[in-house]
Write a structure and sequence with these properties.
Elements (H helix, E strand, L loop, with lengths): L9 E4 L5 H12 L3 E6 L2 H11 L6 E5 L5 H15 L4 E4 L14 H29 L2 E6 L12 H21 L4 E8 L21 H12 L9 E4 L6
Parallel strand pairs: 1-2, 1-4, 2-3, 4-5, 5-6, 6-7
Helix pairs in contact: 1-6, 3-4, 4-5
Length: about 240
Amino acid sequence: MNYNILLNKNVFVTGASGGIGQQIAASYAKRGCNLFLTGQDLKRLSHVAEGMRQYGTEVHHLNANLADKRHIDELILEAKGRLNNIDIIVNCAGIFHTKPLEQTSVQDISECFDVNVIAPFLLTKGFVDDMIERRWGRIVNIGSSSSYNGFANTSAYCASKHALLGFTRSMSSELKHKNVRTFCVSPGSVKTKMGKQVQNQDFQTFIDPEEVAEYIVFATSFDSEMISDEIVMKRVSLQ
């Protein structure tokens, strides 16, 4: 493990206006990475981007509607225009519906798949050719305990996170021999705004988003023979 390998790498983070995404951006910025940040809340995103500039690296931001495929194309072009290439993608943005099946609409599941699966797919396609050409890249997909389990009242979300895990596994097998490494990082419930939607659990036992971010940076800094392509993060206590 060598954090110096991350110096001056260009990192693209979706969901950067949220709890985990913001912490991931900060953790990479502290290691000298340049950032391109996206999020739906432009006011919050601007505030996050301004905070990242204290680390002295290049920071760009643009609000994003990841359910709109045309907007994703614009994001890819803008990021390449600002930073020339992207070395690390962190697909952190997500939609979390908590509804019983009979109240879950086709639109609900379409929204979950558009943001949680299709957007990471399109962003990976948009940036991976440059990674392959340079023989260095990291693709981080933020999964969930719902990538491996099914929970009541979250059928659309669980289905999308299972799909994201499958996509990550395929990309890991396809790209690892080109030194483009793909990770699915699946934390349990995290102390974020989204985490507060989780029902019948003690929020105080949830995982600290800063710890999630630090673990991601740690995992992506290895560059020899070892790789942890699936990372599952559990809580010490579920009470």
